[in-house]
Design brief:
alpha+beta; Aminopeptidase; 5-stranded antiparallel sheet; 23 strands; about 20% helix
Length: about 375
């Protein structure tokens, strides 16, 4: 059974008292009837005995029972830190030991909410991304951008999982799904999770909550390993998996990459191939687009060739040779363990014995 907000706050106050902080005596300004704020997801609400009595005295209320709308109108709405401070003589929220208790309270209050993941796909993904009704804009460079940036998602094997309350977006992530012939069932990849929570402890808690809920909705047992971008942030003993994507590319369903005039910044699938009509996690020979722009555009993928033999090189195959001031492939360059740099292959000699390293031929007496 979930504990009420009053119970959770009471426990946090008791834990702070155990640290030696003096609690204020009850008075008519002490918060009573705590609840979730009806106007701000990040805050809690309360009323005091003084305020409650004034409402009844001035005929704004007939009794001490409040509806949700009345709570929104008459209750005070404040941060969890400010609420906790109201119970003590000192500003306990500034103490690092108290901060740990408050962080746990925030996690407990988040879990106490009646939240469900809402799933969107097709054209609805662009609608959610472009929405201005959100609390994550400062955490995501793409939130609130024109919907045209995100139309490509309607033709890809992806869904958008969100936490919404009263129409406002508080967390979201893309979930990719691919079925290959050698797999018994499709695999999913949970891409980067964006949340409203700026403080890392609460964000990490939400990452775990979302990952577990996505696994539940996709009928993935907790004993299975899951691939999720943020899994490395959760520090969870009961959540096993990897942060990398289990598949390298996803293909457009019916359209061509060139059919879209604008594109989003991508967290994982940053490379696109117009020839293959797919997007990928790594640069491929056919890669033509690099989705590293936040203004609806893309960068052209630069093809770098070996200055010696002309072969195209991947990023991890590029070696700068100091003796000839050229970038060469692995076949045309040699690494000198002695000098800690690369030289042109034709200018190197291997020395055995005590050295056992390639050296520049000019350095051999």
């Amino acid at each position: 059974m979930k504990k009420s907000i009053n119970q959770l706050v009471k426990k946090a106050i008791q834990d702070i008292e155990k640290l030696g902080f003096k609690r204020k005596q009850y008075n008519t300004a002490t918060p009573i009837k705590l609840g979730f704020s009806q106007s701000d997801f990040c805050k809690v609400s309360y009323i005091t005995e003084k305020k409650q009595n004034e409402l009844i005295e001035y005929k704004q209320k007939e009794n001490k029972i409040f509806t949700l709308e009345q709570r929104k109108k008459f209750f005070y709405h404040t941060t969890i830190e400010k609420l906790v401070n109201k119970f003590f003589s000192d500003a306990v929220a500034d103490n690092y030991k108290c901060q740990e208790i408050i962080e746990q309270l925030k996690k407990d209050l988040f879990d106490a909410r009646k939240l469900d993941l809402k799933i969107f796909e097709g054209n609805d993904i662009a609608t959610i991304y472009s929405s201005g009704e959100n609390a994550i804009a400062s955490m995501s460079c793409m939130q609130g951008k024109p919907r045209e940036y995100f139309e490509i998602f309607s033709d890809l094997p992806v869904k958008l999982y969100t936490i919404l309350e009263n129409g406002t977006l508080y967390a979201r992530c893309l979930v990719w799904e691919v079925k290959l012939s050698h797999w018994t069932k499709p695999k999913i990849y949970i891409d980067r999770i964006y949340t409203y929570a700026h403080n890392e402890p609460l964000s990490n808690h939400i990452y775990k909550r979302m990952i577990l809920d996505i696994m539940r909705l996709n009928k993935i047992d907790k004993s299975e390993k899951i691939h999720a971008y943020n899994i490395r942030h959760t520090y969870s003993d009961d959540l096993k998996g990897y942060s990398y994507c289990p598949f390298n590319e996803v293909y457009l369903k019916s359209m061509s990459l060139g059919d879209f005039k604008q594109y989003p910044y991508m967290d994982t699938f940053q490379y696109g191939s117009e020839a293959e009509d797919c997007i990928s996690t790594d640069k491929e020979d056919s890669s033509s687009h690099l989705f590293d722009c936040t203004g609806g555009t893309y960068s052209e993928v630069e093809q770098i060739c070996c200055a010696c033999c002309g072969a195209e090189m991947q990023e991890d195959e590029q070696n700068y040779c100091e003796d000839v001031n050229e970038t060469r492939c692995d076949e045309c360059a040699c690494y000198s363990d002695v000098d800690g740099c690369y030289y042109a292959e034709e200018n190197c000699t291997y020395i055995g014995g005590n050295v056992e390293s390639y050296v520049h031929s000019d350095d051999i007496n």
